Amino acid sequence: MHLSVLFVCLGNICRSPLAEGIAKSYIKEKGFDFAIESAGTGNWHIGEPPCEGSQKVAKMHGIDISSHRARQVTKEDIKKFDIIVALDSKNKEDLKAMGAHNVLKLGDFGYSGADVPDPYFFDGFEGFHEVYEMCETCVRNLIDEYSK
Ligand code: 4NP
Predict the structure, then answer these.
(1) Is 50 in the pocket of ligand 1 (CB under 6 A)?
(2) Which of 7, 9, 10 to mutate to test the pocket of ligand 1 (most atoms within 8 A of CB)?
(3) Which tens digit of pLDDT belongs to each residue from 2-45?
(4) Which of the residues are catalytic?
(5) Domains contained in the chain, CATH given
(6) Is the pLDDT assigned to residue 121 strictly greater than 90?
(7) CA–CA distance, 55 with 71 (Å, rounded to integer)
(8) Which residue's CA lies nearest to atom 8 of ligand 1?
């Protein structure tokens, strides 16, 4: 089973690089043949590495996301990827406005459709644990679902 998956948040520096790193680690563990990338709807952070908190929480789980560089989602991405996974409702709306019909929401895979909280404005590191747990649970459930 081959499937291409693009995780999309706003800046592509906090949430979606984490979801990408978790997904890549999980497909490797399972031996699945998925192509995984991430991007942001915004352009403010193009070329930047993931935020410190996301890098730190990923590292605590043995996942290195330091080499990721932020990029903005394009119309070509929407055509190219089998599924686009939005990290919150606003990301999903923005992707639909770009013409995407293949958009899912990560929180629908284990968190009753909740938005993954945006850690960009978090005060300190604590909140990143919740973001990690949510991404991990939902990413695993999504990949399990699509590898059937
Ligand atoms: P992300 O977090 O969407 O999880 O990468 C954000 C990054 C940057 C901004 C907002 C959220 N920003 O407003 O610049």
Answers:
(1) no
(2) 10
(3) 899 999 999 999 999 999 999 999 999 999 999 999 999 999 99
(4) 9, 15, 118
(5) 17-146 (3.40.50.2300)
(6) no
(7) 17
(8) 11
